[in-house]
Amino acid sequence: MGSFLAFFCTFGQMNAFGTFQSWYTSHQLQHMPPATISWIGSLQLFFFFFLGGFIGRVFDAYGPFFLMISGTALYLLSTICTSFSTQYYQFILSQGMLFGISIGLLFYPSIASISTHFSKYRATAVGIAAAGSSVGGVVYPIVLQYLFRKFGFSWAVRICGISSTFLCGVATVTVSSLPSQTKLGPILGTSIIKDTKFLFLSAGSCFVALGLFIPFFYIIDYTKYITGDPQVSFLVLAIMNAGGILGRVLPAYLSDAIGRFNLLVPCAFLAGLSCLVLWTFAYSLPLVFVFATSYGFFSGAFISVINPCVAQISELHELGTRIGVLYSLISFPSLLGGPIAGAILVKDKDSYHYVAIFSGLNLLVGSLFILCAKLAIDRRLFAKV
Predict the structure, then answer these.
(1) Alpha-carbon span 208 to 37, nearest angstrom
(2) Which residue windows are transmembrane per the record (predicted)?
(3) What are the pLDDT digits (tens) for 285-315?
């Protein structure tokens, strides 16, 4: 339950950044282009991912409690600061940097703690907890849009922040981990540097991260562009995250039966294919709904299965460190994906078409590198890995 709540408040709200992006483009930051505004969400992702290596290291040494209680305090501080922000640099500092740090302190101990308690059904356990991020991704856009209209931006953010802080507090006192019995080695020891499987998995994850979050950032503005209806546009982001609820649980359950890498590779590939085949031709609202559901499902599967894949090729005493190193590596492409898409974007359908292609191609390339990691474990293509 604790990890579910942590995912709900952290990744769930990150998945809803498109709600803020759309609001800023028509309110506080309406004088700025989407590419510039997207740096807020991209910096949020960067700090969240980049701190993974350091947080994972502390987790391996001391466990989750002090990390998560610090994250809860920063979570409240960042949302309060965001609610008072009016200038671009203020949003960068409060919602980009501070919020990204706070959710990292909450997320990594939660995900690593699950992996210390489960072995056989690790992916299923992670998938159930990770479903919290999709539930949050459904709830936050709808609630925020309602609160924006009823109370205005500042009080909407405060109400959400205070409510979410309470849930983070519950997560902090309910998440626990099994202690490691092995002395910690260097952060980047030879076990990581020389592990071909981990290197291929990391390379694939970097390409996936470059394209993964682009639809979550821009699907609201795209839907608003083709329909002219802002209310329906926010609903599309909620539908995308709703697809991720099943996408985080079902593939994770299946991966324990048929192999975690065997699920991760096709899910990353099909997420990319959804962008190339569905998003590029989504010129009507029904097709946008189809794309949102499909992409939410397959991208959600990637989020829930990637950590069990790391656990599968890692020793227990280095698990937190390895998960953290992986996320630190993907922080850089996560930082660049949204702004690159914004730079590509000119407000016509052809530009969104190229954004979809950019996102999809990176996901496809990432899936091929992850396939190489699978083959490095067992060269038999259909072996259970």
Answers:
(1) 22
(2) 40-59, 66-85, 91-111, 123-143, 155-178, 198-220, 232-254, 261-282, 288-311, 323-346, 352-377
(3) 999 999 999 999 999 888 888 888 998 888 7
Tens digit of each residue's pLDDT (9 = 90 or more) over 364-383: 999 999 999 999 998 888 88
Residue 366 structure tokens: 């990432």
Q: Does domain 189-384 have CATH number 3.10.300.10?
A: no
Q: pLDDT value at position 311?
A: 84
Contact 148, 52 (CB under 8 A): no
| Structural tokens at position 80 | 């309060």
Other residues' Cβ atoms within 10 Å of the Cβ of residue 150: 10
Determine the pLDDT at residue 34.
82
In CATH, which of 1.20.1250.20, 1.10.357.20, 3.40.50.620, 3.20.20.60 is domain 1-184? 1.20.1250.20
Cα–Cα distance for residue pair 297/313, rounded to 1 Å: 25
Q: CATH 1.20.1250.20: which residues of the chain?
A: 1-184, 189-384
Which amino acid is residue 323, in one-letter code? I
Give pTM, 2 decimals. 0.84
What's the CA gap between 234 and 111, in Å, rounded? 29
C-alpha dist (Å) from residue 93 to 85, 89, 104, 196, 198 = 10, 6, 16, 37, 33
Encoded tokens for 180: 């490691």
pLDDT tens-digit series, residues 82-97: 999 999 999 999 999 9
